[in-house]
Amino acid sequence: MERAGRLQVTLSQQHPGFSSVTNKMNIPMLLLHPHQHFLKGFLKTPPRHYHFIFHSSAHLRSGIPCAQPFKALGLHCTKWMLLSNGLRRKLCAPATLKDHTEGLSDKEQRFVDKLYTGLTQGQRACLAEAITLVESTHNRKKELAQVLLQKVLVHHREQEQLNKGKPLAFRVGLSGPPGAGKSSFIEYFGKMLTERGHKISVLAVDPSSCASGGSLLGDKTRMIELSKDMNAYIRPSPTSGTLGGVTRTTNEAILLCEGGGYDMILIETVGVGQSEFAVADMVDMFVLLLPPAGGDELQGIKRGIIEMADLVAITKSDGDLIVPARRIQAEYVSALKLLRKRSEVWSPKVIRISAKTGEGITEMWDKMKEFQDLMLASGELAAKRRKQQKVWMWNLIQENVLEHFKTHPLVREQIPLLERKVLSGSLSPGLAADLLLNTFKNRE
Length: 444
Known about the structure:
single chain; Methylmalonic aciduria type A protein, mitochondrial isoform X1
């Protein structure tokens, strides 16, 4: 039997030259049916602007396309609020800061304002607290994090306009096999940049244990001098099982660091592999650090990560390792010539560096600045950043859709049973996946 409810519609009619006219009416209706006939009954002359608020005591299922009838009538939807059993759900809302902050309590608003003010004033404690907020998996804290990020994004755009449209910070991704000397390089490189007046932020991602979920977070302990520098901020974060060597919120942490006034962002990632494409989708330049005398280097490093590298640095080029470092440099120079160019204005370079003696690091910084200048002048950097935002949006959608799928009550009930059947061999993984997907698809 269809459940009937009561619809309260707040109409805000606006015409040019006339003041706003507001009418309220309560009309019984069947919630499980489309609203076209109902609307056409009283919207004989559709105005330019309506504000609809639904109040219903009946249960409205999430899969019903409520907005479609209104769009079919050519109405502009500004805000939809469903109040069902005390539940308020936004169905459609413009992406403006005002709408993001409407649902906050006074305490939450003060908290967000405090973080935003402290962040934009360069307070490290507020930056640390802001990153902790965006890393939280608590639903309400996620909402607060998005409000804060929206405010920072507005501030970020204003600052970029003052900077003649140029990026406020240079984002560099660093990757390499364990033992390549990434932390030692960042320590020396970071100190060199802070002495030259730069503010540097290091987002160092450590692998989490699959068994305990814990992480050593050892990068900060290996950057003792840099961690004491007031113009440097080091943020170690566990991967929490995320593929790609970056956390889900690394991209948001980059935005917060730039909002805090840091003009050089280094993202140190976990390991080497095809999943490192994740970091390449959030940085301006991707640097690969490789140690000498590591065996059959060209076979040991996957082709995918070599193709992504804008700069290859052979580390530990000092003492007895100078000769093997030169040999490996020559090998990679030859190998890179065979790969397809990803940029019209830049060809990947291979250099030798030593964090112990400082050899080659100044030259490396010059190459990085040359890359930035060429990419900015050609417009490739701006295009790359726009593309990265789109890619990252879809990455987050995929992750959230998977989480929504796994936590849906009907799917969650069947997962243990189907997993046992797959483990016992009585059901193929493909069929089990199809059954779960069909359950989710037909959940209504």
